[in-house]
Amino acid sequence: MHVFRLQTAPTLRNCCMKTPAPVYLLFFFCYFIGFAAKAQKEASYWYFGNKAGLYFTSSNQTLLRDNGKMKALEGCATISDSLGNLLFYTAGDTVFNKSHVKMSNGWLLTGHQSASQSSVIVQEPYSTSRYYLFTVDALGGGNGLRYSIVDADAVGNVVAKNIPLQSPVSEKITAVDHRYTRDAWVIVHGSGSQNDNFYAYRVTKPQQPGASAIRPPVISRVGISHAGSFPNNKTIGCMKASPDGRKLALAMQDSSLIEIYDFNDSSGVVSNPVRLRKLPGAYGIEFSRDGSKLYVSTQGETQEILQFNLQAGKGHPDSIRLSMQGILITRSLFAASLQLGIDGKIYVANTDADAKDRQYLGVINAPDSLGSKSKPLLNSLKLNANTHTPVRFSEQGLPNFNQSYLWLPAFKFKYRCIGDLTQFSSIINRQIKGIRWDFGDPDSGPDNTSSQDNPTHKFTKPNTYNVTLTVTLLNNRTRSLTIPVTIAPLPNVFLGMDQWICPTGEIKLKGPEEMARYQWSNGSSAQEIKVTKPGIYWLEVENENGCKNRDSVNILPKPGPVIFQQKLLETCAFVPLKLRTSYRSSTYKWGDGSTDSTLWANREGWYKVTVPYDGCKFTDSVQVVFKECPELLVLPNIITPNNDGQNDKLMLRGIISEGWQLQIFNRWGTPIFEDKNYRNTWPEKAPAAGIYYYLLRKPEAGISRKGWIEVVH
């Protein structure tokens, strides 16, 4: 209700009423911002406030319209045809046609433009041009609920007007389709001391020419009382049906509360109220497109938009109360209307005292989402083109529509890389007759369509595809949603051809630039790795689209020369062996650091050499082992046991096996040492200097040697 239409004291007007102010548009997208949603186009045009106008294109652009002639302080309504062409609009008292002139017989209607929702327009079922314009009075006034019949052909004509239905009623009205037929429900709430009911009027096809298309109301006495005599401030506030027709919600500004009900869109019965109190000056109210969230504009110390999660605690009233959170503080003087658009966003009227600010609308971009994820924006959309003198402003109201025009199915999808089987999940939450998918991929042949609830589709090439989900409702109406789905190419990753690696070499393997993730077979997550060993190495990369690809490369050991033909060489014990490579190289480096082409090996063990070959350095080893050579048996004839490490022991050279027996005699023939398995250990203690005699035998071989040895100190 607008203050200037009340004959009451200023103090009363200021505490309970509404004054003109700017509008905030809150844009909501269904699950994915930027999707092109094809809703019913009957709500394509909006005219509201002070000559303000908007047009919603099928590609979700919001265009300004500067040709509106209407001044609506609060409630208003607009209707377009199924193709989105404007038909007419009204503030409840005057009807303007598509040419923005007063329609024939389209004035002096009894709707009050200062009612929260002055009017709503419903199309006659099965008619392309006949519409019913329902109007309500303000503050429970005597004109109550009335309807007029509009023929929208050509320039339009109001063929009958101000036909009474119910009085008095609250200044709130909403409409939604019938569940099973093409009929529609128009819902109001009574006012006055004896009229505290919901009235649901069914608009149907007339049984015969001239007969009424409006059936007697379904009456539901439920919820809080709106009773009061005119002017009844309890009537102030808006009412909306959810787009799917299953819920009803209303705001009562004077009582600072809202009520949420179940609505049976088959029978018209309103039931099961949930009352939420302590919402100062509650006025505007609106459901998200999927019906899961409810938004309320309030007027307390600040003007705030509140969100309620209707799915909290499986819809338990206490859980819904506790889910309340503020998502946007506006600069409005008074709480203002909220209205869902065909783009899935919710718009909020703006009642800022500054006219320059009232030329803007705020936007909640994703109302199906919780809290800040709903993306509310203040003063987001300007209602005037580039002009220094604004002429079009928001007031307290926004256009009222049949809420069924605003419902759409929704869907999610995942796996968006070429080669993936993309999975689609429909989000409908209501009964339907049928479902059809068109993936926008004609090259896929018969796989381009599906009638499954949650289908999969393998797209034929990287591209952006317009995927359309169409559902048939129980009333045989269809609703479609089109979303551009981008199928991304796989990232290019190529590690090169298989390569040779030198025995001591190093190879750098590098992945493509600017990938979101790198994963190598050795566990590294760097773009580049160094390889020092042969093997098969793979790299998996992931780009910014989440698409993955992998490549591998085989690093092979480079063939080298044959450095040693024989890997095992034998020599007589303690007889030096000259090592020579089979491969003749220009340079050599032996294990001991020498660089000659040959090396003398004078003990058992492995001997290695490194040589260059074909740009690499190759290393090979040969093993030298001692063998027994009795024919080369050598015994020294002098020892010097002075512990200087030289000739301290009697060393048997030329033998390596066991079983040699040694006896030592002094010059008188007395044995002084005997060992049946001599291992070069005599003498353990230095004997006296002089001549000694030895007998060396290997009985099993029949070998015997004898001789003398001198001990010198």
TrEMBL record:
Transmembrane segments annotated in the record for this chain: 21-37
Q: Can you give the residue ranges of the PKD domain?
A: 436-487
Q: Where is this region: Disordered?
A: 439-460
- The answer on whether this UniProt entry bears the keyword Transmembrane helix reads yes
Query: Among its keywords, does the record have ATP-binding?
Result: no
Per the UniProt entry, the signal peptide is: none
UniProt keyword terms in alphabetical order: Membrane, Transmembrane, Transmembrane helix
Q: Which Pfam families match?
A: CHU_C, PKD_4
Q: Tell me which SUPFAM superfamilies the record gives.
A: DPP6 N-terminal domain-like (SSF82171), PKD domain (SSF49299)
Q: What is this protein called?
A: PKD domain-containing protein
Originating species: Adhaeribacter soli
